[in-house]
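Before drawing any conclusions, I looked closely at one protein's amino acid sequence and its backbone structure tokens, quoted below without any editing.
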Amino acid sequence: MAFSITRRAFTAGAALLAAGAGAGRAFAQQAFFRIGTGGTSGTYYPIGGLIANAISATGPNGVQGLVATAVSSNGSVANINAIQSGASESGFSQSDVAFWAHSGTGLYEGKGKVEDLRLIATLYPETLHVVARADAGIKSIADLKGKRVSIDEPGSGTIVDARIVLGAFGITEKDISPEHLKPGPSGEKMRDGALDAFFFVGGFPAGAITELAASTPITLIPVEGPEVDKLLGEYKFFSANTVPAETYKGVPEIKTLAVAAQWVTSAKQPDDLVYNITKSLYSEGTRKALDAGHAKGKQITLENAITGAGIPFHAGAEKFYKEAGVLK
């Protein structure tokens, strides 16, 4: 798994390191806090950049001495693996993947529990997008049989949920021509007529889908019906969700599913550090940056922070939420 530091994160760190003749001493006192996000064309990446900028010492109401960096990755599973191995201090994950990892069930059955995984905050709903070319003749999940479909890269949360949804309709990867691409490359292949549909789990509007819809007629496939009703009963981390009309050009309102986007870390991270990071996340300056920076930023609120936890809170985050009166 490869991580790459964003230009935005590098700039924040460089600004701190260049500050005055005492830069060498300051470096020794700084805390570096990586945030594993996802592919650059998804929602995790820009949200991670906004948060990293806001909570870094150079950001609005940032944490003193902190250099936070947003890091691109393969997504939820990859981020949790990086936290477990010590390759990253924190990362974003779908709530279902975080639950499976901590409990050693589902995707993590037989792989052992990630017992040190801890929650910093629930961020916003992540919507299951099933994007298809408008001329591909796909009106339902069942119509994906025999089609060229990207289910995302191994290590992502999307691939897990894509397999669950396909399975609910009796479809396996043998029934489709599977590709393993992020939304950006999927959109490029769809524009070229080399792909019929792709799955993506993330907050809307997703940049890659917005860009695709601006140049190519697309549709979103509804994820509903008795198969989905049964699935909702079986997998409690799913919830019903709606994508409003014209979220993407020419696409009407559709019913689908959602999980929660969560910011997770390790219990090994210092309590004071995570407390200050959590406090900074809900500061007035960060609020302004999130509201202005991305549509999903508006949903990162103190009230939503403790919803659908699924795994234990980090002690530092828990202390802040209790002081803020949102957690007993």
